[in-house]
Amino acid sequence: MPLLEVKNLHVGVEDEDIRILNGVDLTLDTGQLHALMGPNGSGKSTLASVLAGREEYEVLDGEILYDGEDLLELEPEERAEEGIFLAFQYPVELPGVSMTNFLKESVNSVREARGQEELSSAEFLKMMRERADMMGLDADLTKRSVNEGFSGGEKKRNEIFQLAMLEPRLAILDETDSGLDIDALKNVADGVNKLRDDDRGFLVITHYERILRYIEPERVHVMLDGKIAQSGDMELADKLEDEGYEWVREEAAAAAAA
Amino acid sequence: MSTSETEYLKGKANEDYEHGFYTDIEAETAPEGLTEDVVRYISHRKDEPQWLLDWRLKAFRHVRERIDGGETIDWAHLDYEAPKFDEISYFSAPKDKAQYESLDEVPDEILETFERLGIPLEEQKALTGVAVDAVMDSVSVATTFKEKLKEKGVIFKSFGEAARDHPEIVREYMGTVVPYTDNLYAALNSAVFSDGSFVYVPEGVTCPMELSTYFRINEAGTGQFERTLIVAEPGSYVSYLEGCTAPMRKENQLHAAVVELIAHEDAEIKYSTIQNWYPGDPDTGEGGVYNLVTKRGICKGDNSKISWTQLETGSAVTQKYPSVILAGDNSVGEFYSVAFTKGHQQADTGTKMQHIGKNTKSTIISKGISADVADNSYRGQVKVSKNADNARNFSQCDSMLLGPDCGAHTYPYIESNNPSAQIEHEATTSKVGEDQMFYCHQRGLGEEEALKLIVNGFCQEVLQELPMEFAVEAKELLDIELEGSVG
User: Fold this and answer.
1) Is the CB of residue A15 less than 8 Å away from at least one CB of chain B?
2) Per-residue DSSP letter, B103
3) Sheet holding A170-174: strands in order across?
4) CA pair distance B403, B375, nearest whole angstrom
């Protein structure tokens, strides 16, 4: 059953005459992992932001159904509570806010919304240790302020660690693999694989097919000028790796002319 | 900032002042106006020795001259009407003036007042191990833990008592760090000071508990002029906390305190303040406290240390610069400050670190938070004298703006007369970023939770300097300040 249905989604920037998404259609079933590729500026990150509820974007047309319900009705924190998680392309630093404090508030807020009991401090710390361990995250990072002074790789790993803590139903990874060295990349991919589950869907935005080799997506989509221009399997990703996006552009132009 | 956040921040302005109530205790109040008679009346009422009256009169003549000369303080980034010195009553005392032997003798109204402020004396006595010298209006009404302190030879009493019981110490030190000629408000305080605290820690003694005083301003139109003197003999240590809150009043209330700290060789004084006085009507700014305070400490001996930590959330106008004179070699001065202004509040606060001895070190961490139409300024001076070889200073001044209509300003002054000095200054101003808020929202946190988390994080470096139990209280106070009518 579809976890996420994006239908004919048109999006602009609030108060400006800019259109970024021009009719996106995308369906993701529970238990699946889809990759979203495409050249810079094609609208991938915008789609991620709109799914998470970022306010500066304005939905001009179309709809998004999450678990069959209208997602656009919900505030960003409500979406998080309903199980949507965004691993940020540029994780934000919160100076002076300890990871422990932040995640405890966050986990308990989400648990409360899902009708689960609040975790005691002891239970929470145990869970944090276990998940940090599972994700290969240095436990010392959990003692520091959120993302403050983290290296690029640590920030990205920290996002996947938070994903593990918050146990979402839909996880969106916005270029989590960008800027990672090969070891960190494997580490992130391992984390994702461990978290794959029949009840969980993943939308992985990436520029490189390298990470896809490790996580093996069910579907690969290519976004161009704010639309899904091609969809396929891993072969599509391989072709992009070899040939670039030019052929996608040509085919899209030909289709538009026809 | 998004619309909903702006609305949320506006909503905070509708909050009632939590501690706004008034204790009904009959008081004896001096006639309005600043005259020699009033000074004599205060001294007489307090049963003071002649030398203290003489000192007050000297200060009185000085301040009278300054007031008559039309002196105003116009260099701060503050906009308020100067107090009308001749319309203020300079003394009021609870009618039942006796010093109480035990808490049982304290009038119920006073105890209730403290309880409503969340400061139940008895509970504190039993649970926290904090000695409390409670100052209500101008006369000390209850003092606990005297016995334990006595054992160690620590003197902790009201200033008035100390002047009677230990004149030799009080005379030696009072006015040596903040002379009565220092500034207009210090001069005023020296003439009419009502009461305050006195602490003396003998050589080699570590004070066995945190010392704490709660100030309240109570009578209509009565200024509160506290005077605090702390003397730490060689090798001693003391940690002192003042926590302040006042009931809601219509008139502006002038609060002009003087605090003097003296640290001898190898001694350390830690002075922490939580100030939560009535900030005035959130829409008009009317009726809040004017908090114009002179605080200064001297590291007199080698290897001594003075540390100021303050959380300033109240008052309509705050102007204070807790400072350290680093006279002894290797002495250390610290200033950690959080100033939170909202509504029509204005704060101009900071510090002055004066390096005189060799190898002296100072640290300044200042966090200013501003909301609504409030204005928040950091003003600090680091001065290195000619002979202060190897002086070190690190200053960090961060400002955070919550909303589009508030202001933050930083005025650092650096004066170095010794080429070996190393002075570092960092300053940042940030808005609570939409990015930070969105990141928190994406992790399931609502407006208020997110804002509390971010602001508390911003202040963390300072809050962690407070003694443990007060750090918790401080965090709570910040949370209350940020709470609004969301939803």
Assistant:
1) no
2) G
3) A84-87, A170-174, A201-205, A33-37, A219-224, A227-232
4) 12
Structure tokens at A63: 């709809």
Q: What is the tens place of the pLDDT at every residue in B437-469?
A: 999 999 999 988 999 999 999 999 999 998 876
CB contact under 8 A, B443 and A96: no
| pTM: predicted TM-score of the whole model, two decimal places | 0.81
Distance CA A228, CA B2 (A): 30
pLDDT at A194 over 60: yes
Give me the mean pLDDT over the A211-229 stretch.
Answer: 93
CATH number for the domain harbouring residue A204: 3.40.50.300
Question: Number of structural domains, chain B?
Answer: 1
> Is the Cβ pair A94, B443 closer than 8 Å?
no
Structural domain of B145: 24-432
Residue B12 lies in a domain: no
pLDDT in tens, A32-74: 999 999 998 999 999 999 999 998 899 999 999 999 999 999 9
Residue B454 lies in a domain: no
The confidence score (pLDDT) of residue B116 equals 53
The parent domain of residue A128 ranges over 4-257
Q: Would you state the pLDDT for residue B386?
A: 96
CA distance A154 to chain B (A): 17
What percent of chain B is modeled with pLDDT above 90?
A: 44
The kind and range of the H/E element at B352 are strand B346-355
Nearest chain B alpha carbon to A52: B442
